[in-house]
Amino acid sequence: MAARWRARRIPLAWLLLTRQPVRLAVALAGISFAGILMFMQLGFRDGLFDASVTIHRLFDADLVLISPRSTSSVSMAGFPRRRLVQAMAAPEVEGITPVHWTLLLWRNPETRATRSVLALGFEPGDPLFTDPSLAPKARLLSQKGRVLFDEQSRPEFGPVAAWFKAGRTVESEIAGKRVRVAGLVGLGTSFGADGNLLTSSETFLELLPNTPPGSIEVGLVRLRPGSDAAAVARRLQGQLPSDVTVLTKDGFIAFEQNYWRTSTSIGFIFSLGAAMGFVVGCVIVYQVLYSDVSDHLPEYATLMAMGYRLSSLLGVVAREGLLLAAFGYLPAYAAGQGLYWLVRSATQLPVAMNATRAFTVLTMILVMCMASAALAMRRLADADPAEIF
Amino acid sequence: MPIRLKSSELMSAAAPRHAIALQGLNHWYGKGDTRRQVLQGIDLAVAPGEVVLLTGPSGCGKTTLLTLVGALRQVQEGSVQVLGRQLAGASQGQRQQLRRSIGMIFQGHNLLRCLTAEQNVQMGSDLLPGLAYRARRDQAREWLRAVGLGDELHKLPHDLSGGQKQRVAIARALAAHPRLLLADEPTAALDSRTGREVVELLQRLARDQGCAVLMVTHDPRILDIADRLVRMEDGRLKALTTAVQ
């Protein structure tokens, strides 16, 4: 290291860039802009995918049983509840919770307009979510016609939370039947559902009298500590009939995200947005480096006449690219953090910086700068030291 | 860190009798019908430490000769020995290596605009193998003092006068410890008094280093600094005088 320091040379790349502050500023602005664009697009994409599994993450389950006909949270099909009971036979299984899951029309108690809400029905005594604060509230559901309303639901469902907190009795209509809000929970909205409510299986079946008997949409399975969830899932899948799919909790989350990723254009649109940022950045960096090399062509030729290798001059351009990437990335990262915060506070979308995305964008900026530098290097071939006399 | 000693191979080669030895050098530009001969059977020898001035009307091939001797151009026909190295048939890499032992001073100063005077000169001393950064920087400063610019170390080229820039260029050329200095009308952009000073400086420093000089010039006022004058016309050499001996 010390030897390298002793052997260092004039930092030509650094000086070429910094002695032309306007050009440098343009280049950095361009790279940062491209970086911010990539951060935003990828952030939105991941945020939306994340938002699609807000509820999924909450479940207190190691394995989740669903019907193979279910495609996503907005179209969950039923399967025989018996399968869940059969799963109990596995020695690792500690407990199960059958869950009804469907979208229902909720009438806004203020405006009387209806809107689709995600309704989950379960036995009030069974554990549903990992959050322990649910259990005492769940007891309120043992009375028929009571629901727990998600206070993070969108305002279109009416001022339910505000009214409830003010001590008013909030009643509304679901699927044409009267229900009363027995309490508030905080779950969060997702892609498929603008609002959520929890109710007892009994009330759920009351609201949906056409549900086939013994049919549920989701079966939660809790395993004994230390069990290998993936292995148990594989074994159960083999033992149970094919009218049920056994997933790990992560698999359940992936199942939902996969639907939004592959069956909708969301992933494509945002990836395309990020690609646009990449292309714009490439064009800007290439322009800057190309005109930089062109402007200094006689100087590069002079250096070649002095005996500098072409490779060391190419190295100068490459280092310019690297410096641009590094100094363009930092403001993009900072701005990304700020904008994520802004998005979070404005939309409740779970958008946050994570290491993977930070690394992805850094890689893309590096590729962008180095590719542009490589293209700009071709201009160096025009530097003919024989022409400078 | 391993020190690259390639250029020292040149140094260690038995001291050549001539800094430059040209024999039957021919050179053409263009191809086919438009092919035009610019150098015709040039024979020239320059001894180590000798100062030779090359004059002649413009377009007579002086600059071409300089670029061939400076290993900047591929030799087409004839023998070009520079510092004991044959350049006819030499590869790009070999020529680039040899250029490290040749100092060049151009008509324009050709300084790097983004570097200070000191950094420009250090671009020359950075070519020396095995010296620490600090040593190379100190050498650069020494050279700038030697050309009388000890107070202008940190100025950028555009803050220097024409004469000062040409002095920086001289310092840069000498900073790489060349054994041959090629100069192409170094006084062209300077007024006569400054031009005279610059050339005298160049001659004195080159002589101190035992460095041969081949200088192309139109300037009649500086001819007297030469050990020998060579005149070129239509691609042929006409040895004129052995000037000041």
How are the SSEs placed, and which strands pair?
The complex is a heterodimer of chains A (389) and B (245).
Chain A: H1 2-6, H2 12-18, H3 21-51, H4 54-58, E1 63-66, E2 79-80, H5 81-87, E3 93-107, E4 114-122, H6 134-138, E5 146-150, H7 160-165, E6 171-174, E7 177-185, E8 196-200, H8 201-207, E9 215-216, E10 218-223, H9 229-239, E11 245-248, H10 249-262, H11 266-295, H12 297-306, H13 310-347, H14 355-380
Parallel strand pairs in A: 4-8, 5-7
Antiparallel strand pairs in A: 1-10, 1-11, 2-9, 3-4, 3-10, 5-8, 6-7
Helix pairs in contact in A: 2-13, 3-11, 3-13, 3-14, 11-14, 13-14
Chain B: H1 6-12, E1 20-29, E2 36-46, E3 51-55, H2 62-69, E4 77-82, E5 85-86, H3 92-99, E6 102-105, H4 117-125, H5 133-146, H6 162-175, E7 180-184, H7 192-209, E8 212-216, E9 228-233, E10 236-241
Q: What value does the Rg of chain A take, in angstroms?
A: 30 Å
Given as residue ranges, the uncertain stretches of chain B (5+ residues, pLDDT < 50) are 1-13
Oligomer status? heterodimer
Strand content of chain A: 15-25%
Radius of gyration of chain B: 18 Å
Helix content of chain A: 40-55%
Can you list the strand order of the major beta sheet of chain B? 6-7-8-3-9-10
What is the first-to-last residue Cα distance of chain B? Answer: 47 Å
Largest contact between protein chains?
A: A-B, 29 and 36 residues
For the sheet with most strands of chain A, the description reads: 9 strands, mixed
How many H/I helical runs of chain B? 7
Please describe the biggest sheet of chain B, giving its number of strands, its sense, and whether it closes into a barrel: 6 strands, mixed
Task: Name the shape of chain A in a single word.
Answer: elongated
The H-and-E topology of chain A, N to C, reads as: HHHHEEHEEHEHEEEHEEHEHHHHH
The count of strands of chain A amounts to 11
Strand adjacency order, main sheet of chain A: 6-7-5-8-4-3-10-1-11
Per the principal axes of the C-alpha atoms, what is the gross shape of chain B?
globular
In N-to-C order, the SSE pattern of chain B is: HEEEHEEHEHHHEHEEE
Total number of beta strands of chain B: 10
